[in-house]
Amino acid sequence: MNTAWITGSNGLIGSYLVQTAPRLAADWRIRALTRANFDLLDFSKVETEFRQAKPQLVIHCAAISTIAGAQANPVLARRVNVEATRRLAELAHDIPFVFFSTDLVFDGRKGNYTETDATNPLNVYGETKLAAEEIVLKNPHHLAVRTSLNGGHSPSGHRAFNEQLRRSLREAGQEMTLFTDEFRCPIPAVETARAVWDLAQKSCAGLYHVAGAEKLSRLELGKLLLKRWPEVTAEIKSGSAKDFPGPPRALDTSLDVGKAQAVLTRPLPKFSEWLAANPLVDF
């Protein structure tokens, strides 16, 4: 069997790629990599492991994956998100390589972004992901996947957007403000994993948007999920991101997923419809 490396396999999307592999990628032997195996910043160790294992596919999920984390330590964010990606992509120059990027490479002024739209990240996280995209896409056989908010259950219990929101609402007390004018295209991580396995096994290369097929505001998203959490007593009230006291926020980074939809075996779902179709899933 061919071997596939999945880095960051203890993260949200990485864990779903590992979980779904027996069903969606049965012809692959999966090596689920975490820092316990080796540090991706130890480049000599990474090269040694790669030369010995000779994987035939690398799916690179490991990253500093939050705006706050990247802003707090931009040097580390660049080392992890850009330099580690560069080294892995170089090692994988002759094999398929899949890299995860983000809708936050856009400034949110337009919305419904296609793969060919101009980028303009507003934060360090988006800047590092865009820089890594450019490295990956220099190889015509490599694949960069931009995604949006991913939901589900992460091994740590705090990587998925629904886990973060649920915790915030529990800690909020009586009420919490969610924005009516900040839009994303949320998607269950299990659907992201399914789509990426499909793209990888079809040898797709270049840049693809893989996200939910529905644009939702933070407020709309919160109301959908609150219905599934009867133990949460905090109320949600509406607010504007323009009143947020922090740095500028990308207001509408919704993604056009038409390019991916044209090649996927099963279409990317609308998040509200997925929730309705899976009422018993603890989400």
Spell out the blueprint of helices and strands.
Blueprint: E1 2-7, H1 12-24, E2 28-32, H2 43-53, E3 57-60, H3 67-72, H4 74-91, E4 97-102, H5 124-136, E5 143-147, E6 150-151, H6 161-172, E7 175-179, E8 183-184, E9 187-188, H7 189-201, E10 206-209, E11 216-217, H8 218-226, E12 235-239, H9 258-261, H10 271-277
Helix pairs in contact: 1-7, 2-4, 4-5
Protein architecture, described:
With 283 residues, this protein is an alpha/beta fold. The protein has a single domain, classed as Rossmann fold, CATH 3.40.50.720. Helices cover 37% and strands 17% of the residues. Strand 4, helix 5 and strand 5 form a beta-alpha-beta unit. The radius of gyration is 18 Å and the shape is globular.
Summed up, what is this model?
The chain has 283 residues and is of the alpha/beta class.
- Gross CATH architecture: 3-Layer(aba) Sandwich
Distance between the termini: 34 Å
Q: Order of strands across the biggest sheet?
A: 2-1-3-4-5-10
- Give the percentage of residues in beta strands: 15-25%
* Helical residue percent band: 25-40%
- Low-confidence sequence ranges: none
Q: What is the rounded Rg?
A: 18 Å
Query: What is the domain total for the residues?
Result: 1
Largest sheet geometry: 6 strands, parallel
Note the overall shape: globular
CATH class reads Alpha Beta
What is the residue-averaged pLDDT? Answer: 96
> Structural class per helix/strand content?
alpha/beta
CATH topology name, in short, is: Rossmann fold
Number of helices: 10
The CATH superfamily name is NAD(P)-binding Rossmann-like Domain
